[in-house]
Amino acid sequence: MSSPSSSPSSAAATATGEKYLSPGVEFGSKLAAGAVAGIIGVTCTFPLDFAKTRLQKQKTLEYKGMGDCLRQVYRQQGARGWYSGLRPNLTGIIPEKAIKLACADQFRDWLRDPHTGRVSLAAELVAGAGAGFCQVVVTTPMEIVKIRCQLTGASMVSVVRELGLRGLYKGYVPTLTRDVWFSAIFFPLQAKMKESIIHRDDSSTQKTLKSFLAGITAGAVASGLSTPVDVIKTRLQGGDPGGVLTILSNTIKTEGYGALWKGLQPRMIAIGPLFGIAIMVYDVQKRLLRSMGYHVPE
């Protein structure tokens, strides 16, 4: 956070009596809000992510779709089966969502026009891509452990022991590609949507609901467009032989290009609300800090 004299927006904040959080406290509050948002979102949408993983990994028509997948697993294992892999996901989602949301916000602050206080579309794209890049150090091990648990029902501890440290980062490249691509779409889209639909005279409830709408829409669009990379990542981390190009080639040869869009429906249905909740919780935290007299950029 810049000093009060470093920009017009800072000077204005000082003139109106707003307080400034120290950089460490400010970034820590962003991490905390991102972590809380991630826990809430994942807990609510995890069965859909479970179905997405099973559908993307299957090579035959074992499951006819999302509903059929969830029904079959329920008959065999009960509702508990839908939550295979939840533990590693919750373990990883705290730092993953915290890093993604906090870094995106921090990059936006750094790239904000010092004269107008606005963030250009190009800056939004850079900030989003940067956030996706930063999170991958956490995302890759979380994803591979979650996927192995979802596919086999194994425990988190047994999967970690089997993979070892190096194995936890299998699929780093497609995970990085997916997360950068997703974030470069998601963050600019949700930011521009909020600029268009949220107004100063909206009530707190209206602002909260509109934040959720922007997050759920941007999350669904970004997740849909990044599905082909997610399919290859899931298969690589799920144990398919070969590297990214080999798996991509084999998938197209044996199943056609349509296979790259497997799991599209549950992925969009799960990721949309997940990020809608994340952005909503994150924005509520910002408004809470503003209500306490602190200067928090939009």
Fold and architecture overview:
The protein has 298 residues and is an all-alpha fold. The chain has helices at residues 8-15, 23-57, 66-77, 86-111, 121-152, 156-167, 172-197, 204-225, 227-237, 244-255, 264-291. The model is unreliable at 1-15 (pLDDT under 50).
Task: State the helical fraction.
Answer: over 70%
CATH topology, what is it called?
Answer: Mitochondrial carrier fold
The main pleated sheet reads as: none
In angstroms, what separates the terminal alpha carbons? 13 Å
* Total E-strand runs: 0
| 3D shape | elongated
Average residue pLDDT: 88
Number of domains: 1
Residue fraction in strands: under 5%
Order of helix and strand elements from N to C terminus? HHHHHHHHHHH
Oligomerization status of the protein chains: single chain
